[in-house]
Amino acid sequence: MLLTRIFILFAISFYGIDFNAQTFFKHADSLRQKFKIPELAYAVVSSDSVLELCVSGTHKINGKEKAQLNDRFRIGSNTKTVTAYIAALLVKQKKIAWDTRFFDVFPELKSHSHPAYHACTLQDLITFRINLLSWTYTYEEPSVHNIKGDKHQQQYAFIAWILRQEPDTARKAPYWSNPSYVAAGMMLEKASGKTYEALVAALGQTLRVSFSFGQPNTIDPRQPWGHNQDLIPEKPALNKKLNWLGPAGNITVSLPDYCKFIQLQLQGLRGQSEIFTAEEFNTFHYGLPGFSYGWQMVKDDTSGLRYSYHKGNPGTFLSKVFICRETNRAFIFFTNVQSNEAEEGINILFNRLREKYNP
Q1: Which of 23, 305, 313, 332 has the fewest Cβ atoms within 10 Å of its own Cβ atom?
Q2: What count of other Cβ atoms lies within 10 Å of the Cβ of residue 307?
Q3: For position 21, what pLDDT does the model report?
Q4: Which residues of the chain have pLDDT under 50?
Q5: CATH 3.40.50.1000: does it fit domain 13-78+214-233+251-357?
Q6: From residue 101, how far is each of 123, 134, 288 by CA, in Å?
Q7: Residue (of 47, 88, 101, 93) closest to 279 by Cα position
Q8: Are 67 and 256 in contact (CB under 8 A)?
């Protein structure tokens, strides 16, 4: 596998880089303050270099712990970009196929499930082509009191419950759904003989990336705390329902490490992967309308450039990723608050960075 080479320009005032980078960093930090973002981290990468990597603010609103380069953030649904890539690896290794049906792997669940789901495949789940509920961990049902066992037993029971529910016939494909990725993760576990966490750890070892799961401050209270729309910090806690959604939205990672994974995507799109062809990578990112294999495609109305895009919004963190094959640039944004204001600030910063870095 191609190993990512990283040349980090630390755009933080005390590292003393060039004046233009410092000036832009000050502008980004002013946006952070204006849009009430406790901590902001962002990066611009090409397929072989990190062009800018910046962090500013504090781990907690009005806190004393300053932002650090290796701070960890919950990336929410950007976890799906990792899960889809792991699925592609297992398909490439012939441990499973895109057309493998869920109920061929879990036949015992079929008789109790809604007939609308009987033919669903791994590809349907990864690309949101099966009309499962769009469930998230704030939903009241099913109750944690009705789901027993260890984490994986709970996840199994949760998906069994999901598969008994009626599809929402008012929706049209692609059917955005956290449970789709949970079900896909169960298939990957069965095919590989490894837990989802072990699969993620194996990918991390290959890429030299440290992935973990859950709220960063639960692992270490000195790490960033998430904040909701009202800037109320989320206290360290274990959330059973969030654990059910592991393959859909529970990865925690630092910005420098996630840069390596995004560079891997750029390398693949440009034909520089030793595992997948450029055609395969382009299928993963652009192959289907609306949503492909972990990625959706958006176009810039001004330039006509297309971007692979994904957003993670797990309630108290926000992450956005934009990848442009044509310009060999990707833009990554992490915050420890989920709010409309924070998203507006990120969008402004993205537009300014595009002006600066797109060749």
Answers
A1: 23
A2: 23
A3: 59
A4: 1-19
A5: no
A6: 9, 20, 19
A7: 88
A8: no
- Rounded CA-CA distance 301/309 in Å is 15
Rounded to whole angstroms, what are the CA distances from 121 to 112, 136, 183?
18, 22, 10
Write down the pLDDT at residue 303.
Answer: 84
The H-or-E segment that residue 297 falls in is strand 296-299
| Residues in a beta bridge with 323 | 308, 330
Residue 224 is classified by DSSP as: P
The model carries a pTM of 0.92
Query: Alpha-carbon distance 277 to 265, whole Å?
Result: 12
**Cβ count near 64 (within 10 Å):** 7
| Residue appearing with tokens 């709220």 | 215
pLDDT per position as a tens digit, 117-132 = 999 999 999 999 999 9
Phi first, then psi, for residue 84 (nearest 5°) are -65, -40
Q: Could you tell me the two tokens for 275? A: 């595992």
- pLDDT 10s digits, 13-59: 223 334 355 668 899 999 999 999 999 999 999 999 999 999 999 99
Break the chain into its structural domains and give their ranges: 13-78+214-233+251-357, 82-196
CATH 3.40.710.10 is the classification of domain 82-196: yes
**Dihedral sign computed on CA atoms, order 132, 138, 140, 146:** positive
From the CA atom positions of the chain, what is the Rg in Å? 20
